[in-house]
Amino acid sequence: MTVEKPPLLRVNGLSVTFRAPGKVITAAENVSFEVQQGQIAALVGESGSGKSVTALSILGLLDYPGAVAQGEIWLDEVNLRACSPRELRRLRGREMGVIFQDPMNALNPVRSIGAQMIETIRLHRRVSWAEAKALAIVQLARVGLPDPAALMTRYAFQISGGMCQRVMIALALVSGPRLLIADEPTTALDMIVQARILRELDRIRRENGLGILLITHDWGVVAELADIVHVMKAGRIVESGSVFQIFENPEHPYTRELLNSR
């Protein structure tokens, strides 16, 4: 008898609100989905649909005036909503990696690539500076960056957007997380670089058994990478299904509208 594995990530009934003068705005309402180990689940929708707010809630990075009003967020058997800020900091990087949508701004412009890589490694692993440097070079090479030892001395403004994005992927994966949250990972990249990044994410998922939550409005990216698709509109998930189901037989009018607008 096969015992089904519990999901790596489980979000159940998540609602997120923002306080404004005299009113409360609901940015996400009763959002529920799962990500299995080795699976890529896509959250798809137009700008303002609640995708990034959902991701920030999972990571514990939602700033005031935003707040999780209700719902459960579980990483394996860890209740993320019950974690202290210190516990969440430990889990981010070690258990959960994140790729932000603007790598040029996500990387520190006044610190070298190497300094940022080494700091991240030593934050989550008990290794010497020299060991962290060696691990950083190996990780930069794994994401296909040429001459990683030389790249360690460079700054974000000295390299291309595509290289910055690969550095972000390396930073997100260097501590061996089990869950990767990728928020619009190919935005503003040309088609050739975009294809390389997508291949890289798929390779990493297959080799490491990583669960990936992919946040995007790009149906081409969804078709290339996703196993499961959750379509968001105005803070709610209106349709979920396999990537084949969603593309071949979309049921919700909004899903059909999004697909027709490609």
Average pLDDT, to the nearest integer? Answer: 90
User: Unreliable stretches, pLDDT < 50, 5 or more residues?
Assistant: none
The percent range for helix content is: 40-55%
Fraction in beta strands: 25-35%
Under CATH, the topology can be stated as Rossmann fold
Which CATH-level-2 architecture?
3-Layer(aba) Sandwich
Numbering strands along the chain, what is their spatial order in the largest sheet? Answer: 6-7-8-3-9-10
Number of domains: 1
Largest sheet: 6 strands, mixed
CATH class descriptor? Alpha Beta
Q: Give the terminus-to-terminus CA distance.
A: 44 Å
Question: Which class of secondary structure composition applies to the elements?
Answer: alpha/beta
Give the beta-strand count.
Answer: 10
CATH homologous superfamily name? P-loop containing nucleotide triphosphate hydrolases
The general outline is globular
How many helices in DSSP terms? 11
Give the tags:
alpha/beta, 4-stranded antiparallel β-sheet, 6-stranded mixed β-sheet, Rossmann fold, 40% helix, 262 residues
Summarize the structure.
With 262 residues, the protein is of the alpha/beta class.
